[in-house]
Amino acid sequence: MKKLEVNKNIIWSTAFVNELAANGVKFACISPGSRNTPLTFAFDSNKKIKKHIFIDERSSAFFALGLAKVKNEPVAIVTTSGTATAEIYPAIIEAYKQRIPLVVCTADRPPGYFERGANQSINQENIYKNHIRAFYNFGIPILSEKKLKFLRKKSFEILNISTKINPGPVHFNFPFDKPFEPDSFTNEVSKTLLAISISRNSKNIFRPRAGKSNHTLFKKIKNDINKYDKGLIIVGPENYNNNFAKNITKLSEKINFPILADGTSQLRFNTKNQKNIICNYDAFLRSPKIKKRIKPEIILHFGRTITSKGLEDYLAKLKCKKYLINEFGDLFDPSNNSIAILKMLPFLFCKEIITNVDKKIKNREWLSLFINADSISSDIKNKIINTAKFPSESRVINEILKLIPENSNIMLSNSLSVRDFDNFAQKINTNISVFNNRGASGVDGIVSTSMGIASRSKKPTVLLIGDIAFYYDLNGLLNEYKNSIPLTIVLINNSGGGIFNFLPVKKYKQIFKKYFLTPHKLNFKEIVSGFGVKHTTINNWKHFNKIFNLSIKSGKVQALELKTNTEESFKLRKLFLTKVRQAFEN
């Protein structure tokens, strides 16, 4: 039988990449490097996978995170050896916390090289061990039928973990010895052996699985819902099933429990005027009078940890039965006062409770208390926040919501952006998807993540971001596809860490300004223009409306900068909260 000359690193990588493609990996984010040459050639030759190329590994990983978020499907990241592997760690942490399936592929030196001082060499053995679902080091490629079949089998098993069994990032490490290029032959192999690297039919292993319920715990929760009349439904951030919104509102109507909907929970939008969905809890729960009246007997908490620190502090002091319900039985309870976690898909839980609960309402004033408090707070918000003079960090939230088209995305930066959105975003009958990086809540990689979301979804996407987070990820603007990515960046520039105004350290003025506010004099217009991105400094609300609409229609990456005053913004928020509190004390 005639033998074929091949490069073992290329064949090894090709078998791996074809296994990924066969099981639903459609995108790969690749950064240049020498040691990852075999992986780069293998991904390039697979036409089922779309490739995105990034100079900066950190930006690459966060872009991959954004791509994966849109449909919760696996995306590959490819890096060379050495510190390049460390650059992608922040995105891996975020993916781990949010259960996003990233397939991390790191090239490596042969075993022992980092111990001998070899260039661009570090210990990569399970380097992400605290923030991944699985790791495998394939070792130096060996071209035998047994080894190639094992490589494909192991790749499938770990991808299955990432997408189905225990969703989140997984890590494959590939030690390669030179030569790397396809025409640098290292072995002679048969056609039979070569065929093992050929792609096979997709197994679609990333399809959502049905959650398995603990029937004893489910029955206990059902009985408690029947037993108690004063209950709360809390819906935190999560990528919920499409049926969840419909089922949770039906459940609320049946058992007369209000829904405290986090701004990132998706429930405030396309609500069709659901009165049971409460938005202004962070404001009215600051009233001592309201807090005395609101003493729930049972709490049903869906999704992740809520954004509102005020609500979290309030919940921490309660003594009632608090149940967490989420698909994988994750503990999202900083106050540590929940009594049990039900591992079940939220929409299925709601559906089953609606069918099985026989609720007889004894205290109808309970739900009305929340609806009235929410309405009063909303009226005050309209008078103080939504009519504020330009520029206003708080008002811009609902200006965006008034203008954003149907079927669009909003990506929220951490720090003040997501908190303001949670505090001020009103219910609107517009279908939008809200994204965030609230897993670890870092300010790095926000621009790149939003680029990935907009690129994958092809929908108009709005990023609300502060100047510090924007500065952190300026490299995200260096994207070859920026002229076809429909991303509008609303940049709130208050020249420093404005969120620290809400901390007690503010009273130490000299230390506060030097170490916390970190004011800067960056000219974002010149910086952004240098990346080939259009920048507009907004002058007034009318100007904002005009430029925002033009940016959305352009289908390109554009930046709209609002220069705000930290102190004035802080006073406006404080005035709103004071007026809400006074409304319930009179």
Structural commentary:
The chain is an alpha/beta fold and 586 residues long. It has a 6-stranded parallel beta sheet, with helices on both faces.
Keywords:
586 residues, alpha/beta, Rossmann fold, six-stranded parallel beta sheet, 22 helices
Can you describe this structure in just a few lines?
The chain is an alpha/beta fold. It contains 22 helices and 20 strands. It has 3 domains: 4-195, Rossmann fold; 215-377, TPP-binding domain (Rossmann fold, 3-Layer(aba) Sandwich), CATH 3.40.50; 385-585, 3-Layer(aba) Sandwich (Rossmann fold), CATH 3.40.50.970.
Number of helices: 22
**Beta-strand share of residues:** 15-25%
What percent of the residues sit in helical stretches (DSSP H or I)? 40-55%
What is the CATH first-level class name of the largest domain?
Alpha Beta
Q: Could you name the CATH homologous superfamily of the largest domain?
A: Thiamin diphosphate (ThDP)-binding fold, Pyr/PP domains
Please specify the SSE layout and strand pairing.
Blueprint: E1 4-6, H1 8-22, E2 27-30, H2 37-45, E3 50-53, H3 57-71, E4 75-79, H4 84-87, H5 89-98, E5 102-108, E6 134-137, H6 145-165, E7 170-175, E8 187-189, H7 191-195, H8 215-227, E9 231-235, H9 244-255, E10 259-261, E11 277-278, H10 281-284, H11 288-293, E12 298-302, H12 309-316, E13 321-326, E14 340-343, H13 346-356, H14 365-384, H15 395-403, E15 408-412, H16 416-424, E16 432-436, H17 446-457, E17 461-466, H18 467-472, E18 487-493, H19 509-517, H20 524-530, E19 534-537, H21 541-554, E20 558-563, H22 566-585
Parallel strand pairs: 2-3, 2-4, 4-5, 5-7, 6-7, 9-10, 9-12, 10-11, 12-13, 13-14, 15-16, 15-17, 17-18, 18-20, 19-20
Antiparallel strand pairs: 1-8
